[in-house]
Amino acid sequence: MSPGVSRRDGHATDLALERLHAGELTAADFGDHLDTCAVCQGRLRALGAFEVPALARRPRLAPWMAAGLAAAAAVVLLLRSPGDPAVVPDAGLRLKGGFAFEVFVHDGATERRAGDGEAVHPGDRLGFRVHAPEARQVLIAGIDAQDDVYLCFPQQGGGASRPFGPTTAPTDVGEAVRLDARLGTERLVALACEAPVRLADVEGALRADATPPGCARRVVRVVKAAP
Amino acid sequence: MILGALLRFVRPAASDTLDFATLYTRHAGLVHRRVRRFFPAEDSEEHVHAIFLRALEKQATWRGEASPTTWLYQLATRYCLNRLRDRARQREALAINAELPWLLPAEAPDAAARVFLEELWATLDEETTLMATYYFVDGMTHEEIARVTGVSRRTVGNRLEALQATARQAAGEASP
């Protein structure tokens, strides 16, 4: 074997096999070891057979982060320019006074309300405000560029909606999510429904950009790009 | 979505900057497997995300000529070790996933390795812990450790020989 690819016990190092798997090394770098060593052949096959679990869930923010996010969001609300078209209206259940959904982006230094098509980056934290003039069951989810659906609110309850409102103004839901490293356009969807709903029951509609029966829906799109 | 297939790494032409999207798509499996070496499967997703976010922060340390696999392997290893500073978790960490198929054959640690894992780990600086992990846990040679960490082979040898002497002494003192 070439220097640097062999463990002290004579087998290939884990890193060398990873580099071979990634195309950075060739079998020739291992001499005839890979042809003759059944153990390392098996390890290499295991690398090829490994499937990365779907990365659809986002870690929750620590409570102090969420509190900070809410406080910062309140400041931004006061500063935002009137008429900022952050929310894409959608058909569905009509709520007297209007159901509203706002998304706030915290990039570690600043806080801003997301306009539709807002540029965001991996690691940014998103907070949410909902105005439900009539008490409703609220659920917020995201649909990423690969059409994977993930839950944003409520994060406890196994994917079930939570009673929310009535409110007199946009109200922070008290939970936030951190964006993962998957790039592309993501849709953040808030549902306000007459009866409890579960994410598993509505995710097909959310993927299809449709409104589940008995619900009102609001959508904010963000575009996640590398910094 | 499954990101199991790792493809060749492509950097933008005439640039030594990282193509982060490509890096993530093509090397998520590597980072997952490295995380699994230290953490249970149910914890791995959050750690993988954190490592890629760390990669974004550390882009400045990327050298255009370097192997992206080595760079991420080093970044992931350093991250995992930092998260395992708790001594009770250190001992568990390397036992729980020792039988992962891409790691076999797992050798039983010798006396010096046991002392490192059970007693010395928490007392060492970050760089020495990293080198010792590559040596005792991953079975790397001094030469490979020098390549991965970017320090001279002499420095690796000096640090590990000193550590082994300490470990042997501690093991001897611990023996009846």
Report on the structure:
The complex is a heterodimer of chains A (227) and B (176). By secondary structure, chain A is of the alpha+beta class. Chain A folds into two domains: 14-49, no CATH class; 63-224, Immunoglobulin-like, CATH 2.60.40. In chain A, 22% of the residues lie in helices and 28% in strands. Chain A contains five helices and ten strands. Chain A has helices at 14-21, 33-36, 38-49, 63-79, 199-207; strands at residues 100-106, 111-113, 118-120, 125-131, 136-143, 149-153, 162-164, 171-178, 184-193, 215-224. In chain A, strand 5 and strand 6 form a beta hairpin. Chain B has two domains: 16-97, Orthogonal Bundle (Rna Polymerase Sigma Factor, Chain: A), CATH 1.10.1740.10; 107-176, Arc Repressor Mutant, subunit A (Orthogonal Bundle). In chain B, helix 1 (20-38) packs across helix 3 (68-83) and helix 2 crosses helix 3. Helix content of chain B is 65%, strand content 0%. The interface between A and B is large, with 47 and 47 residues.
Index terms:
heterodimer, A: alpha+beta, Immunoglobulin-like, 2 domains, 6-stranded mixed sheet, 4-stranded antiparallel sheet, 22% helix, B: mainly alpha, Rna Polymerase Sigma Factor, Chain: A, Arc Repressor Mutant, subunit A, 8 helices, disordered N terminus
Helices and strands, with pairings:
The complex is a heterodimer of chains A (227) and B (176).
Chain A: H1 14-21, H2 33-36, H3 38-49, H4 63-79, E1 100-106, E2 111-113, E3 118-120, E4 125-131, E5 136-143, E6 149-153, E7 162-164, E8 171-178, E9 184-193, H5 199-207, E10 215-224
Chain B: H1 20-38, H2 41-57, H3 68-83, H4 87-96, H5 111-120, H6 126-137, H7 142-149, H8 153-174
Helix pairs in contact in B: 1-2, 1-3, 2-3, 5-8, 6-8, 7-8
